[in-house]
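STRUCTURE:
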């Protein structure tokens, strides 16, 4: 299946508390989310694997792939569709070897050095950001704005998704900057109506 990065939901269990993680994801998918990444910095591997298995069951038949943040072990144990790695996580080559050729593999990049260091032949997409400062990620790198996004997205041979402080009002700027899609946590997780929140992005694309 071709990769649809248009609306990439990254989860945060704490922010999703009002409805719980599974219901939030369920509703967001109804609203048009095209990819889901399970991200949890607190959970044990066992807890995260359990959560991943539940999300995988929930997403079955929806065509929306489940990506695991950082943890190769969890991605393998839950038979997730892919893994998203940061600059200090498992090496891309090691992740590709373990996950196999069909898996979706993404890497976070923030600057030109990281872009040129990325083994693009092993990757399916890059996440570029943060675009703006955000309280959803602790100790995030320096925000790069839409100018930074444009220079990285245009120079990178892979499809890209922009992340960090973004909401539906940013869709056109993200697309103009050359990224294929937009990744969000707080614009969907913890919103009073996650389905409607996701739908706002669809309207912005239309
Ligand atoms: N990586 C860079 S910024 C970020 C991550 C995981 C957090 C994005 O969260 P939000 O709420 O969409 O700004
Ligand atoms: Mg990481």
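SEQUENCE:
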């Amino acid at each position: 299946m071709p990769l649809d990065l248009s609306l990439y939901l990254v989860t945060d269990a704490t922010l999703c508390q009002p409805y719980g993680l599974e219901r939030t994801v369920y509703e967001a998918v109804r609203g048009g989310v095209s990819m889901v990444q399970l991200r949890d910095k607190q959970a044990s591997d066992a807890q995260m694997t359990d959560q991943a298995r539940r999300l995988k069951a929930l997403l079955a038949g929806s065509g929306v792939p489940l990506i695991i943040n950082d943890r190769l072990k969890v991605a393998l144990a839950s038979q997730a569709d892919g893994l998203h790695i940061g600059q200090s996580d498992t090496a891309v080559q090691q992740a590709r070897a373990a996950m196999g050729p069909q898996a979706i593999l993404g890497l976070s990049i923030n600057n030109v050095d990281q872009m040129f260091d990325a083994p693009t032949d092993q990757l399916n997409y890059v996440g570029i950001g943060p675009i703006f400062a955000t309280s959803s990620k602790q100790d995030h790198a320096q925000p790069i704005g839409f100018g930074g996004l444009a220079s990285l997205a245009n120079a990178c041979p892979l499809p890209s998704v922009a992340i960090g402080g973004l909401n539906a009002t940013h869709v056109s700027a993200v697309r103009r900057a050359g990224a294929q899609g937009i990744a969000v946590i707080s614009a969907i997780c913890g919103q009073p109506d996650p389905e409607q929140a996701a739908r706002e992005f669809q309207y912005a694309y239309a």
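REMARK: The domain at 7-205 is CATH 3.20.20.70 (TIM Barrel).
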